[in-house]
Amino acid sequence: MPADTPHRHGDPARSELPSGLPSDAVIADLADVFGLLGDPGRMRILLALLGGPLRVNELSDRSGLSPSATSHALRLLRSHRVVEAHREGRTAEYALADEHVRDFLELGLAHVGHTVLVHTVATPDATPEACDPPAHP
Fold first, then answer.
1. Hey, is 98 helix, strand or coil?
2. Would 137 be classed as within a structural domain?
3. Is residue 12 domain-resident?
4. Does residue 4 fall inside a structural domain?
5. Would you put residue 31 in left (φ > 0), alpha (ψ -120 to 50) or beta?
6. Which domain holds residue 39?
């Protein structure tokens, strides 16, 4: 992108990588966040929050996790600034921390919506070849 072209914040299609890598601390933080996102239960919580703020019991119902597991997942997500809590008295509503998180989730959904994912499933008739992605000519 030319230097005089305005950069639209939050538009990954317009982003450019810096000439060097980020610091080791930034890379470690990014790896931690991606690791958190790799858990299906936490991903269900985050996808539920795309619709707006929810309480722990609502998130538990929607994610299929127990209230205890939901609370634990929310603590991890809060500690990495992926979600935030808004308290009113004794209750708290959880929401996505910011538009970056929303953008990332929406981009992820768009990505898996147009790609074929190959998951290894342990079945009696599964062979290693059946789990390999198709070869490109």
1. coil
2. no
3. no
4. no
5. alpha
6. 21-131
